[in-house]
Write a structure and sequence with these properties.
By secondary structure, the protein is an alpha+beta fold. The protein folds into two domains: 119 residues, no CATH class; 138 residues, no CATH class. The chain is 50% helix and 16% strand.
């Protein structure tokens, strides 16, 4: 009996010693689970973020000055009221009509937009000037004007091939004009961006804009960087050069810049403002005659108006044919009209 009791006591002691070991073993899976639970968020945090889709309208490969952008705002509330209230169309029909709407270049580029178009506002919460609709009813339409030519045609064709065709997100149109018309349209838009009263830097800006248009292969941004003066070179026959803070242009190039400055500013006040000061037409013609610019262009007329006409002919290309290509971006319109239909249908 005594032997049996001693054996049972020994077994009990062994069992007690074994219990802590089982607890340690049981605790290991829990620790492993906790470690796994903590490790999961770190893996998720290291996961790469989704990249934003690349903008398809990339004009980086186009020559400087060959692309201009015009933006206008379209009020969808005005259109819906016209279709549903006045024409009696169902909301779904109005929605389909607006989705198919292809605005003309004239509507999008008018100096004074007509209803339902209006100029973009810098306000944080703009309202429609016609019906007072809030921002959620406003669709942005952008039209890009690309001048045709050897320098831009290849880049334009490559861009158009990449544009998505679904739902006609982009409209491609073309216009035939003369080189003179294209130039004066460009000149008018340039004048709208210049501040003739307050901005003393408008003359270098006008000169750079013309030079970028005339010689897009040159790095005019670097040429004008830090330049404090633009001068007529006495030794260059063509091209340009930098000398410290001064930019020197060959005589023919410099005279063309003066003519552009005269044309873009002459309607502002009497005469035109140029690098050579304020010039009337007789002043401009006399300066170019004395400098040999008229002889170089083969202009022998004495009448100053005839001389100006021939100078402009040389500068613009005259009646030679030219093409303008327009890319209209309708993506914002398609997105906003869908929201507008949802509100009306509700």
């Amino acid at each position: 009996m005594a032997a049996t009791k001693s054996k049972s006591k020994a077994a009990a002691k062994k069992a007690k010693k074994a219990k802590p070991a089982s607890k340690k073993a049981a605790s290991k899976p829990k620790a492993a689970k906790k470690a796994g639970a903590k490790a999961q968020p770190t893996k998720a945090a290291k996961a790469p973020k989704a990249k934003a889709p690349k903008e398809v309208l990339d004009f980086g490969g186009f020559p400087a000055g060959s692309v201009t952008r015009h933006e206008v705002t379209l009020c969808l509330s005005c259109i819906y009221k016209l279709f549903t209230n006045q024409l009696g169309l169902a909301p779904r029909t109005a929605y389909n009509e607006i989705r198919r709407y292809a605005p003309t270049v004239g509507e999008l580029t008018a100096r004074e937009p007509q209803r339902p178009f209006f100029k973009p506002s810098e306000e944080k919460n703009p309202r429609c000037p016609y019906c007072d609709a809030p921002k959620r009813w406003h669709a942005r339409l952008s039209v890009y004007r690309v001048e045709g030519g050897k320098a831009s045609d290849a880049a334009r064709r490559a861009l158009v091939k990449k544009l998505p065709t679904k739902d006609e997100q982009f409209l491609i149109t073309e216009e035939k004009k003369t080189a003179r018309q294209v130039f004066f349209e460009w000149l008018e838009r340039l004048g709208q961006t210049l501040d003739f009263e307050e901005d003393a830097a408008w003359m270098p800006a006008a000169a750079r804009a013309y030079l970028e248009r005339r010689e897009p292969q040159s790095d005019w941004a670097a040429a004008f960087e830090g330049a404090r003066a633009v001068r007529r070179s006495q030794r260059l026959e063509e091209g340009w050069e930098r000398d410290g803070s001064r930019l020197f242009l060959a005589p023919a190039l410099y005279n063309d810049v003066l003519l552009v400055q005269y044309l873009v500013s002459r309607s502002h006040r009497h005469g035109g403002r140029t690098f050579e000061g304020r010039l009337t037409l007789p002043d401009l013609v006399g300066r170019m005659r004395r400098g040999g610019h008229l002889d170089a262009q083969g202009i022998t007329d004495r009448d100053r108006f005839d001389v100006l006409e021939q100078l402009v002919e040389h500068l613009t290309g005259g009646d030679s044919p030219a093409r303008l290509h327009f890319i209209t971006d309708r993506r914002d319109l398609l997105d906003k009209v869908k929201d507008a239909y949802t509100r009306h249908a509700a």
